[in-house]
Design brief:
By secondary structure, the protein is of the alpha+beta class. Helices cover 36% and strands 22% of the residues.
Length: 445
């Protein structure tokens, strides 16, 4: 009996021990760590949060936009930044967003340039081809490298349509907008409309060797042609004004219409591009603060190899080119440039600016590397020899001396002085002795 009780007790003890270990087994089966009470108090300081450069840039640009929106005249601002084939940031404030549609205006010329390069790739156009012969059968001597930087949009549109066999709007839609997924971009009543988001996708393709999301709009070789500076046109690439800042080489193109102003900047070396759109009257100071703030934050100053002055071709100063210019009718008739009547007067303004009056009334700001551009991007000017080309397509040359009104004014003044002198001398009786050269006796008797 005693042995049986011992056996029962042993069984009871074993059951209790197994019951107490069941939770531990279950815990180990789920790989949970054992729970232990803390043995001491550990002081833990604040953990620093490291933000990426793109996040820091986004914070800066967001603050910049809020600050600039303090001007109540500006209704909205939007900025989008891309690097290679991916977006870096998208920031907006006010009535402008990533999807807001606005007129592309001058930025449309970049789409035309890409279309021209595509047609060259396909063999429908050749770089040395006579554009006049293509458009209307006349031998103009104008080639594509001459057309793109200084030709007007209407002539470029005719070239695209002649080479493609269809309308420019259809061509751009099939070869650029649709492949890149630019669903907000289209031609409406003859004007191209787009959005910040679509321009950002377009820019991403250009800085990514012509390809985005498996859609190729240009070969890498054609992209290099687009980005390369033109020795014949200082300050210009293949249709784009150049920008040198903080040791970086960039390209920019602007447009303004219907209360909107926009800018697209491409920096080929880092593969970075950004789009800015503003709704409302944004003046020179506003654009300077916005554009320079964004550029400096995204592309801070870098060390570059200094270039000796001997290797740099100095651009002509504003004082050197100041004067009166007339439309170059001979050149215009050859290259189908924009018809422009009236002389253009140039004078040097403050800060290296160029003040135009007459046929155009606007102030152009100097661009690093040469050339001048309006703050809103509506007009650019460049020199080739003594010829002055405007981005509107007009061409001018200095008025010859014999045509200058000041010369005729001086001649008229000289003639008037001569008449006055003759009249004065003719109306005063002069003693005949003044004209008598014979010696006279002047002694007093």
């Amino acid at each position: 009996m005693f042995s049986i009780r011992i056996s029962h007790a042993a069984a009871l003890i074993l059951a209790c021990s197994l019951g107490s270990t069941a939770p531990a087994l279950a815990q180990s089966g789920t790989d949970l760590p054992p729970i232990a009470a803390p043995t001491s108090h550990i002081e833990v300081g604040a953990i620093s949060l490291v933000r990426s450069k793109s996040e820091q840039a986004g914070d800066f640009i967001s603050g910049l936009l809020r600050g600039l929106r303090a001007d109540e005249r500006v209704q909205g601002i939007g900025v989008a930044v891309v690097q290679r084939d991916h977006p870096l940031l998208d920031n907006d404030t006010g009535s402008v967003s990533n999807a807001t549609k606005f007129p592309a205006a001058g930025i449309g010329r970049l789409f035309q340039t890409v279309a021209i390069l595509q047609l060259v790739e396909s063999g429908r156009l050749k770089p040395g081809q006579n554009i006049g012969a293509l458009v209307d059968g006349k031998n103009s001597g104008l080639t594509l490298p001459q057309l793109i930087p200084h030709g007007d949009e209407s002539l470029t549109r005719r070239v695209v349509e002649k080479a493609s066999g269809g309308s420019e709007a259809d061509y751009l839609a099939k070869r650029i907008f649709q492949p890149l997924g630019m669903n907000a971009t289209h031609v409406e009543n003859g004007a191209l409309r787009t959005s910040i988001g679509d321009l950002a996708r377009f820019a991403a393709a250009l800085v990514n060797e012509g390809t985005l999301d498996n859609a190729t709009i240009l070969t890498p070789a054609s992209v290099q042609v687009l980005e390369k500076g033109s020795p014949e046109n200082p300050g210009w690439s293949f249709g784009l004004p150049e920008l040198q800042r903080n040791g970086w080489h960039a390209l920019q193109i602007d447009g303004a219409a219907e209360g909107f102003s926009a800018r697209l900047v491409i920096a080929p070396d880092p593969g970075l591009a950004y789009v800015i759109a503003v709704r409302g009257p944004a003046g020179t100071r506003f654009w300077r603060a916005l554009d320079e703030g964004v550029f400096d934050e995204l592309l801070p100053a870098r060390d570059v190899t200094p270039v000796t002055s001997a290797s740099v071709t100095q651009a002509p100063t504003e004082q050197a080119i100041a004067g009166t210019y007339e439309p170059d009718r001979k050149l215009r008739s050859l290259v189908f440039l924009k018809s422009q009547e009236g002389d253009l007067r140039l004078r040097a303004g403050p800060g290296g600016s160029l003040v135009l009056a007459g046929a155009e009334n606007i102030t152009l700001l100097p661009q690093p590397g040469g050339g001048w551009t309006a703050r809103d991007g509506s007009l650019s000017a460049g020199l080739r020899g003594d010829e002055l080309f405007l981005s509107s397509g007009a061409a001018y040359r200095p008025v010859p001396l014999y045509k200058r009104p000041v010369l005729y004014a001086l001649l008229a003044l000289a003639a008037a002085l001569g008449v006055i002198g003759a009249t004065l001398f003719g109306s005063i009786p002069l003693p005949l002795a003044w004209f008598d050269s014979r010696p006279r006796d002047l002694s007093v008797h």
